[in-house]
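Now read these lines:
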Amino acid sequence: MAYRREKSAHQAKQPLAEVFGFPIDSNSAEAIRCRKHRLCPFGNRVPNCTKDKANNPLGVCSIYDGRDVVITCPVRFREDWIIAEDAASFFFPQSSKWTTLTEVRLKDKHGKSAGNIDVVLVCYDDFGKVTDFGALEVQAVYISGNIRNPFEEFLRNPAQGRSFDWTGHPNYPNPDYLSSSRKRLAPQLIFKGGILDVWGKKTAVALNGGAFEAISPLQEVEKHKADIVWLIYDLRPSYPAGQYYEVFLERVVYTERPKAPAGVYLSQGQPIDTFINDIVAGLEEIVV
């Protein structure tokens, strides 16, 4: 089944769909404020954007691919934490209580790092005891070419809005679906997924439609048989004002976990009880 991405109303002459959370032709007070102070409105670790560099952030949330709008920053998916709500509906029973931890370290049986899980959803009972958890991976699309040059050029005069034209410049930026999906996401799901599979825990993946299309064809299964849910999101203009884009769930696909290629060694994880203790410690640290 082909995926239909949201189309821009116009053929862009430059690559920037959103800068610091807003379309470049948005002149709302909040858009101006975010550009001035380089803020991230989508739940970053700190109020400011920290993409690429903390002191000189590359505040590009999404770019144009022709008329398509493509999410290029993983934090962009956090708008209103819809991704967590959608993942929780796959992991836990409907009436469950849950919360989230971000950038949770996954360790092997020797205590060495096996990578970070983008978001761990934690289910707990009425007494606050952790009863279950699931892993949510977020995959934005990589960019080929140079996106910083048009970004910095636009910020020199943000008032130009949609008239900004980057046509004909060398290294014009474009989405690199292949690198983001097959070269990064797939190996991550195999290696980290091997540990989660032994633990009997499920995975959710939040990504853009083009990134999903770039993955090798997947065999869909019924929800109750799935190890992974693919949460495919898109951006659409807000209505009626159209001063910002909003993220929405376009499609859900359930699959089994991808198998490791023959001869590939998979790390054995630390005991699950140790990981749960780390989760509990993480929850205690964020209590205010």
In short: The longest helix spans residues 177-199. The chain has a mean pLDDT of 90.
